[in-house]
Each structure stands twice: as structure tokens, then as C-alpha cells.
Amino acid sequence: MEAGGSSESPADQPKRGKSKTPRKAKDSVLKQKSPAEFFAENKNIAGFDNPGKCLYTTVRELVENSLDSAESISELPVVEVTIEEIGKVKFNTMIGLVDRERVDEELYDDYETAKAREKRLAKEARNQEIQAKNAALGKKVKEPTPAKAMKGRGEASFYRVTCKDNGRGMPHDDIPNMFGRVLSGTKYGLRQTRGKFGLGAKMALIWSKMSTGLPIDISSSMRGQNYVSFCRLDIDIHRNIPHIHIHEKLEKKEEWHGAEIQVVIEGNWTTYRSKILHYMRQMAVITPYAQFIFKFVSDTSDKSMTIKFARRTDVMPPVPLETKHHPSSVDLLLIKRLITETSKQNILQFLQHEFVNISKAHAERLIGEMGPEFQPKMLIKSLTDQQIVRIHQLFRQAKFEDPIGDCLSPAGEYNLRLGIIKELHPDMVATYSGSAQVFEGHPFIVEAGVSLGGKDVKQGLNIFRFANRIPLLFEQGADVVTRTALKRINWSSYKINQMQDKIGVFVSIVSTKIPFKGTGKEYIGDDITEIATAVKYAIQQCCIQLKSKIVKKMQAREQQERKRNLSKYIPNAAGAVYDVLKEMAQSHALKKKRYEDEDATLLGKVSTRLITKDTLTEKLSQHVEQVDYEMALEFATQSGVSEEPREAIYIHSLDTKSDFIDFSNSIFCFRLTR
Amino acid sequence: MAEKKKRRRADADDDDLPFKNRLKPDSVILQTLRSLTGSAATASSSSGAKTLTLADLALSSTCREVADLSLSSVQSSIESLILRIARSILGGDGFAFDVPSRSSANQLYVPELDRIVLKDKNTLRPFANVSSVRKSTITTRILQLIHQLCAKSIHVTKRDLFYTDVKLFQDQSQSDSVLDDVSCMLGCTRSSLNVIAAEKGVVVGRLIFSDNGDMIDCTKMGMGGKAIPPNIDRVGDMQSDALFILLVEKDAAYIRLAEDRFYNRFPCIIVTAKGQPDVATRLFLRKMKMELKLPVLALVDSDPYGLKILSVYGCGSKNMSYDSANLTTPDIKWLGIRPSDLDKYKIPEQCRLPMTEQDIKTGKDLLEEDFVKKNPGWVEELSLMVKTKQKAEIQALSTFGFQYLSEVYLPLKLQQQDWL
């Protein structure tokens, strides 16, 4: 552009451009955007990139909210997800639109011109010809692939996603704000949670508004409420406030607490089917104490499916506690906010109570270090900006004890192990739970599991990543876990074959702040040494456990094969020895060489065929047999006693409602469910 | 025509070749070399009478050495071994070999001898054990095959030996390694077993010797030179008017020197084993050194492997340490290309290669080796290499023209007596 370096104002440029109609550049008007508007425009930030991913993310957000909700009241979660496919006709009737036939065919993108039609017909004819030829030659005839259903751009698929849980439920009056206001949430604060930004369910709502225009339906009931709240609302994107259609209390028909959320969105089941199923499966691995029922309902019955991920344990990790900030993790803005929010009066109390790992004595020392203008009894609200900066600087430089991590709630080694066994049925599994470590003042815990073998596991490394107990499915390549497992673990030193064995690597990281990379919260970068080291260590610990098992297995196999392996070489060895003996016997007989008494008798026996190759073979076999017996005995005495440790099994409790037939006896009772 | 071209190119190069102007006339260089060789010969003849052997040293740990054995004695030791085994088998006890260990833990560098020797540790190789059944079977088979060779008094190559029972041996490295075990066990050199390796080394230059009765003149062997015969016992009557022996690591440099008839300008014998030296080349070099009493100058790459090759010629390999007495050539000088030459001869950056992690590790390991430590000059050079993390091949000199090596580099080195 010639105007590149000149001083002419950019407003003049369009005039010199090619467009003939001179446009007047709009005067830039200062506009403001509501958060809802921002996220509607940048929905990829929250994982709503395309219809397929939107469907996936919607399911994900709803499931995670349900789990959080159930866990917050220490209830074993039961989550029911239903995705119902809605055809175009059905959708139109739903929104009260008359389905119109196409009148002007040429108007559409998928209109077939005469030329294209000619081409297609010619191609079809050719294919048929080839097939006829093949059939005539007796070749295997490939089923002609049905011509792909022409799908125009406008041909969107719609889905009704329903998620029902047994969680806490929501207070009747809060419901509109909880769904109709982006960036409002209950999960703010320093705590390990699945969600964080108060975006999930609202993004689903924004997406439904963008793609279908339909509102969201929420039913909820809390413990002790004798009614069910029902709310139908959508969101006023420009003002970021809820727009309520219906908000009423209904009669409670059955005992239930929790929430049921229903939203109709555009999606793409075909391409994201496997992702959604993977997600459900991995979620079942990391939360074996939850029960998931996943249903897909479609008009074509062969596409419909119901999968139940049964509960395998009733041991639930504790509810993560909200914790105070660690001094080395806060920034200037956060300190200011804490100052405005605090109930404490003076700076001493503030330091002591608003942060972890600062005792009273420590706080006094810190204040002394800040400089002469700081006094322990200084009013906290009276601090100047400069003084706050001074506090921040000191926090950066001073040394503090690491946070202890008791506010975290890892899945637990037991649950991780159960989850792996339940979903993968591996031949071997080892798990390890690390102690809390610290990254930039945030505690984190790494847990790992390594499995070998199992169903639906491909050869090589299968990596399962979890962050704050949610599965991460996308952008695997750059993730710290993938990198570590691929590059920094020497599998062969643990007797594991990286290419041939079916290796499952499970790593779960929990923290008050997971350092996600990228916008989509889908992977953890490889550049944080603390995390990379902890991940490597955890995987190695699993491998060490596995190695001893593998070695034992190999030894057992060796035991079985020892006799065969030894016997295999008997003919070779006996043959070689006998050949030399024979030659010696010959030269002995020809008196070419003299041998002394004992040797002479032996060679004499060889010449008279008293000793043959078979004699040697037989003697060697006897020896091998004896050695094998001795070694087997030794192996048995060493390893016979030790048995695999027993594991507690979880037996699913029966519904009390089912009726039984009891066959009673004086000693026992058979109870059969009907 | 070709002659003309050559001359013209030589004229043109005259000014271009760096350092060429520092060269004195050949006659002056020759003069210094001659005086040096003379003194070296007298020195070695005076001290050569008392070459140290293992027996002369009162070493704290006993060491094992092998000797050349006659065919019949090899045969009878095999026979007595087999008889012992046969009796053991018939007695129902299976059998086992007591094989000298050739692991690196069992090696010892003796500074007085300047070579690696084998200590006396043995390992038992029983048949009735899963981990050693294979090896002991192969050992039996090799013993039988060698017994056959002795009886018939013929030579075979290692490859031949392998092919007699491919099914058992599976790959040649296994039969080769057991072959070394057997010579260790019987206490004889590998050549005494009548098993030879294929020819690998070549020699060209001012050397006349007899191979199996035929007189060979190595100045008249064309460009390729004479292949070093695998049976050193048939080589004899060495005569030479050379001033030194030039040991070359690589074939490429060897061909350059042979084609330029470097040995006619400076009377010398040029030897190469094309990489790691085989037994025959090492035996041949030792024989030349011992009989002709010439200094040996080595031209190897400036990388850890070049130095390693040098060490194998000089102190022996760990694999064959049991026979190091016969295989090593004492007093080899490191002529080039040394790490310090890279800057001295202004070898441009694009011809130097960065050392890999592995290279650097090998270099650091070498610094710990006794045969490097005994020569302070080598330590200095190697430390420089590890520090600069740069290596260069002999071919790097070709940047100044293909003939730079023979025209300038080597003459200059000789003139300055620049070797360590």
C-alpha cells in the first residue's frame, strides 16, 4: 500500500481503494461489551469451537456441575445424561415454524446443475460396469457405498441434552442468576473445583440461544423443600442478565433433590460420538463412586444407545476445602481486593488471618521488615498504594513455608485403581499417590496409575489425563503427561515394551490452580519443572511396582519353560562331544596317538559302540531332569507362600423397593429378587 | 596431457595453499627425519633387548596371557577337555566349562607394559542352567569344529566357522565371541586355532616381505596396495628403506596418499585397517615395528573414536586383552589430526562438526582411561576437544584442495616433528 509511511490519515484510504462506492469510515464510537456478549463472540475460549465440540462441551459442563453439586453434600453421585436427536421437521414444529418445501431449487448450495448431474451419472455407470466385470470374474464384490447423503450448509442437526443429578439443588430465587448471568458463580475462591469461571452452563445457554433460540429448562429441588422449582429462561446477551420465561414452584411428586437441566442446541453427534463416549468412560475411571447413565435417543433405532457406568465403591474423596491464599501466590490486585474484603482491623491481623503459613510471630517479623512507616497496629484500610506495593514486594522476596495441600481432594489411590480396573480390566495395575508439592504458591498433588493389558486398549502407550478430576481429551501432544511418558520414562528398564505392550498411563493432577495452557483448558504445559518432575516420579513409582510383578511373572514362565529350553540343546551338545570322542577313538585304534588308562578305556567303549551319542544324550537328559526338579522345588519354597494381597470388593446395594422371596432355613437364608 | 594438467594445477595451487610457504625443501625435511630415525633405531636397539613381559613384573594380581601353541598341542588340550566333559556327563553330573571372564571388570591396564591385560577371574558355564545353556552348547560345538581343523590342519575364516552351524549360532557375533572364549580357555592365540578373519587391512609403500613364500614389493602394488595377509605366521623376510610407518585411520586418506605416491617423496610404509583394526593388521604392524624398528605415526580423525582406534593399536582392545602381548604395538605417535590443529591450520568452521552428547561422553570417559593419562600431551589435546566440543575428520583438510593432506599438511607436520 503506498500510503504505508505517509502521514495521511487512514480515513482517506478507502477513496483511493478499488471500490467504486466510496465508503465513509465509521467514526469509532466507544462501545461497551457485556461479558455475555464477549463470550458469545469468542465462544471458542470456553471450548465451543464448532457444533460437534459444542455438544461435547455442553455434556461435559453439565456432568461436571452435577458431580460438584452431589459431592458438595457428600452424596454418592448419580448422573443421568440424555442426548436426544431432533430432526429438522421436529425442530421446526418445536419452535412453531412451518416446514417449507424448496421452491427455487437453484437458490441452494447443494443444487445439482445439469453438468454435475451428467458427470455423476457417468461415474455411476462406470462404477456399475466395473462391478459387473468384477462379479463376472468372480472377484469379491465390494458393496457399493451408498452415495453420501447430500448435506447442505443449512442442514444442521439439533439435540436436546438433559442432565439429571442427585446433588444439592439450587435455592428457588437464585436460579435465574445462576444461569442467566455469565461470570457469576459459586465456585470462585481458592479451592479445588472442577469448574472455575462460572461459564459452563451459561455458555451452553448462550450457544443454544445462538443456534436454536430456545430457552433452557431447569428443575431443581433441595433437601427439605416440599416443592420443585421450575424455571425456563434465556439470557439477555447485551445486558448479561437473565430473561425469565417461567419461574414457578411445582408440586413435588417424589422424593428427590438435585437438578435437571435441559437445553436444545445444535451439535454434531456423528463426529463427536467417540469423544463424548471417551469422556464418559474416563470420567467413570476417575469417579468410580459415581453412577452414570448415558443415553442417546434417535429416531433411527440402531443409533440409539444406553450405557451404564455402574458404581464400584462408596468411598468418596472428601470435599475440597476452601483455603486462604499463600503469600507467594498473590498479586497486587489480589492484595487490594483482600484488603477491601477483610473484616480484620489492623495489618497484623490481616497478615495473620488472610493468608496461610503466616503465624503471629512471623507477621510481626514481616511488618518489621517492611520498614519504619509500618506498625503492627496500623489500620489495614489506611494503607497507601505505595505501602501495598511494598507488601507485595516483600511477599515476592520472603521465604514462606510451602502450603501443605490438605485443602486438596485427590481422587485417591484406591479410587483411581478401582476406576482403572473397572473400565479397562487390565492384567496388571499399579498406582501411586504423591505427596503435595507446590508450584507458585499453589499446592498440587499428582497421582498416577500404570496398567498393562486390558480390553479396548491399543498397543503402545494409552494416556489418560485428569486435571482436578476431570478428563482432558484434547491437545494431548503437548501435555506434560504425554511428554513425560513418551520421552522421559525408560520403559524397557521396567521390562515393559513400549511398542508391543498395552500400556495405560493414568495421571491425575489436582490443585487449587491448574496451570492450563491455551484457551480451552485442555492441556497442562510441559514447561513447569515442578509438575513435570512430580509426574515423572509418580509414573516411575508405578513402574517400579509393576516391574517386580513382571519379573515374577517372567520367572514363573521361565520355570515352566526351563526344562524345554535346556532339553532343546541336548542333541547339539551331545553330538559335538561324541564327534570328538569318535575321532579320538579312531586315531586311538590306529595307534596314531596314545591315551592313558582311564581315557583309553573310555575311548575303547566308544569304538566298540558301548558308548554312543544316545548314551550321552540320555545321561544329559537325566541330569537336566534332576536339575529342573531341584530348581522347581527351590522356586516353590521361595515363592509358594506369598500370595497376591486380597482386595476388598464392592457389592452393589439393592434397591429397597424390589421385592424378594426368602427361602429361610435354620442356618441360612436365600433371598431371590423378583 | 594428464601430466600437464597436474603440473598446472600444482602451479596454480602454489600460492593458494595456506602454510605452503612455510615448507622447507623436501631434502631438509628428509635430513631431520633421517637423523631422528637413526637415533630412534639405536635407542630401541639398546633398550629393545629387555622388552618387559608380564612375568618380569611382580603384579599383585595374577594375570593371564596366551601363547602361540602348535596344532598338536591345541588338539590334545581340546581332547583332554572333551574327555573330562564326557566323563562328567557319563557320571550323571552334566558338564560345565570354566571360562576366563573377559568382562571389563576383569581387565587391567599395566602402565609398565603400556597395554591392557586380563586378570585371572573365571566364570563357570554350566550346561544345566537356563542362562548359560546356549553358550556352553556353542562352546562344545566350537571345540569340536576346531578339533576338526587341527586334525586336518587347515585354516578357515570366522565366517566359515559360523556357517557350519548357522542354526545353532544364530548370528556371527555369538560364534565369534565364543571363539575368543575358547582361545582364552585353551591358553592359545586365536591364530593357533586356525581360525582367521577376512582380510581388512592394506599396506603400501617401501616394504618388501614374503607372504607364503612369494616376495611382495609394496611399492609395486598399484593404488590399492597389498592386503595384509591373515596368517601372520606365513609372513617374513621384511625389508624396508622407509623412515617411518604411517598409520591411517581411513580408507579415503589412505587412497589419497597412495595415489600421490607419498611414500616416494618421504620414504615410508602406509597402513590402514579402514576403521577399527582387525587382528591381522595389528599383528602385522607389531611385526613391522619389531623387525624394522621404525617410528609409527598415526593419522586419525580428531574425534574420540580416532583416539580410541589409536589406543587399540597401542594398548589392545578389551575384547582381545588375553593376547595383548602379541597384538599391541608400543610407542605410537599421534601425528594428527589433533584438536589443536583445527585452529593451527585454520580449518574453516563449516568443516568442523559439533560433537554429539554421545561423543562428549566418550571423550570424557577416555580422559579417565589410563592409556590416555600416561601421555600428558594426549590429555591436553583431548581436554581441548571436550572443551571446544568440535570434531573434524581427516577429510576436513580437503577444503584447501584434495591434495592438501599430502602436499602440505603431512610434510609440514614432519618438518616440525609435530607429534605426541
Tell me the name of the CATH class of the largest domain in chain B. Alpha Beta
- The strand order across the widest sheet of chain B is 11-8-14-13-15-16
**Broad structural category of chain B:** alpha/beta
- The DSSP helix count of chain B reads 17
Largest sheet of chain B: 6 strands, mixed
What would the principal axes of the Cα set say about the shape of chain A? Answer: extended
- Strand percentage of chain A lies at 15-25%
Arithmetic mean pLDDT of chain B = 84
Structure description:
By secondary structure, chain A is an alpha+beta fold. Chain A is 39% helix and 18% strand. Chain A has 18 helices and 18 strands. Chain A has helices at residues 13-16, 35-41, 51-72, 88-94, 114-136, 175-180, 200-211, 269-286, 332-341, 347-354, 360-370, 385-397, 413-424, 480-488, 529-568, 570-589, 597-607, 613-639, and strands at residues 78-86, 157-164, 216-221, 227-236, 241-251, 258-267, 291-297, 305-309, 428-433, 437-439, 442-452, 460-467, 470-472, 502-511, 516-517, 523-524, 660-664, 669-673. Chain A has an 8-stranded mixed β-sheet. In chain A, strands 9, 10, 11, 12, 13 and 14 form a 6-stranded mixed β-sheet that branches. The N and C termini of chain A lie far apart (83 Å). The relative contact order of chain A is 0.08. Chain B has 420 residues and is of the alpha/beta class. Chain B folds into 2 domains: 63-196, Winged helix-like DNA-binding domain superfamily/Winged helix DNA-binding domain (Arc Repressor Mutant, subunit A, Orthogonal Bundle), CATH 1.10.10.10; 197-415, Dna Topoisomerase Vi A Subunit, Chain: A, domain 2. Chain B has 17 helices and 18 strands. Chain B has helices at 2-16, 26-47, 71-90, 133-152, 158-164, 166-169, 172-186, 251-259, 262-265, 279-292, 304-315, 324-327, 339-344, 357-368, 370-373, 376-388, 404-416; strands at residues 63-64, 96-100, 107-110, 115-119, 122-126, 156-157, 195-196, 202-205, 208-211, 214-217, 226-227, 235-239, 244-248, 268-272, 296-299, 332-336, 353-354, 390-391. In chain B, the strands form 6 sheets. Chain B has a 6-stranded mixed β-sheet. A 3-stranded antiparallel β-sheet of chain B has the order 1-4-3, with no helix packed on it. In chain B, strands 10-9-12 form a 3-stranded antiparallel β-sheet. In chain B, a hairpin with a 4-residue loop joins strand 3 (107-110) and strand 4. In chain B, helix 4 crosses helix 7 (172-186) and helix 14 (357-368) runs antiparallel to helix 16. Chain B starts with a helix and ends with a helix. In chain B, 44% of the residues are buried. Chains A and B meet through helix 15, helix 16, helix 17 and helix 18 of A and helix 3 and helix 4 of B.
